[in-house]
Write a structure and sequence with these properties.
CATH class of the largest domain: Alpha Beta
CATH architecture of the largest domain: Alpha-Beta Complex
Number of domains: 2
Radius of gyration: 27 Å
Largest sheet: 8 strands, mixed
Helix content: 25-40%
Structural class: alpha/beta
Amino acid sequence: MADFTNDPFGVFQRRINATLDTQRASSTRKRHDRGGRTARENLADLVEGAEINEYGQLAVAAQRTRRSLEQLQSDTAGDGVITAIAPVNQAAFKDQDCRTALIVNDYSVLAGTQGFFHHKKIDRLLSLALEQNLPVVMLTEGGGGRPGDTDVLTAMAGLDVPTFHRWAALAGKVPRIAVNHGYCFAGNAALFGCADLRIATTNSWIGMAGPAMIEGGGLGRFAPTEIGPSAIHETNGVIDLIASDEANAIAMAKYALSFCQGDFSSGEAPSQQALRAALPKNRRMAYDVRAILNTVLDRQSLLELRPKYGRAVITALGRINGRAVAILANDCRHLGGAIDGEAAQKTADFYRIAESWQLPVVSFVDTPGFMVGPDSEATGAPRFMSDMFIAGAALTQPLIAIFLRRGYGLGAMAMTGGSFDIPLYAASWPQGEFGAMGLEGAVHLGFKQELQEAPEGPEREKLFNALLDDMYRRGQATEAASYLEIDAVIDPTETRAVILSALPMRRSSVS
């Protein structure tokens, strides 16, 4: 039936209502019964009542040749995606700092698949994000490409859609956060994987192909819950943050987004006195570096990314007296703090986020260097470890280095952007020790002949310890500072104040 009437306003209102949850009771109830939220509920949570400029709300699937317009309006609202520009975190930041491009896939419409107008809506918003320099939050749930859009007569395979190129081309230009809950396959997974920061619920399954494509390729039959569960992607580096449910995921996205939106005017931290006892007296003993971070940073501001991947290096967002910063820290409880291939890749990725999000980097260094040996090389160490230098060299954001204890070799240099002369300020705690390689290895390598000549047993061990003690004295932080290889040695309680004094001016002020 043709959609003509003498009441244009009535037509408009009916068309708008058809896109809302109140008029889509069956799909809304189905979503709730499965413990999920609707796309519009997630959108409402993101903007918290702020005004929204929605794009393409009246779109329907390109299937007018196979379905009635009334059916398309009721069953394919928005062609399976909501696209809008609206403020996020409006209560905390000035209006110009919180405007965000929002893309929310709607799984209740054709399983969130990507159709002709679906792509056009996303393409339109990505173009606006680039033109207006807007961060993007994308909810990626969906089943990938849709083969049933029969209205499209000018395309064969549909491989000329610009969506994936435009999304990837925003890398390094605007912050991009992807959030997923449920099934995310094929094209949707490609969008998820391209984001700077990726958040997924525990009930997420993310794969570059869904069950039908896998079976069609002759690779076997699998249930969708067997393909890319979040528990796997949490450990392989695909997922940065794991959320318990959609509400938790949206809260994480808003909190993460706040770090690229600006600085707060102030922030409180615990007493700094505990830092004097933060390191064990025995230099060979491990400790919890997160306790140090949570003391130096503002209370409850630490947001750690990929905690189960590349565990020798911690990457996190945090604040110091309200200042948004990117945090690097070696974790000596894993591999003694030696940087393996995974940790190197994770760190290089994080340098790129800091650059894109315009965040100063604060690096807490305690590493014996890069992980070495045949097993390490077999994992591609030269490639991944060298990428830390490439990413560090591309970093234009200020970097501040705090040496907690060991600063050895190429690994320590990579933790400071590639060289100790890169940081705006490089300060060490009194326990700091420095050298071209770990002290024990340096003694074995540099004094191999002397050690071999000493009788095996207590005498050789005594000589080794004497040489080690001498090398430790010559590599202490005070000696490194006297040679100007670092800028200062500081009382651990001064760490927070030193970082604040070294940081450049605030990017913006809170409204």
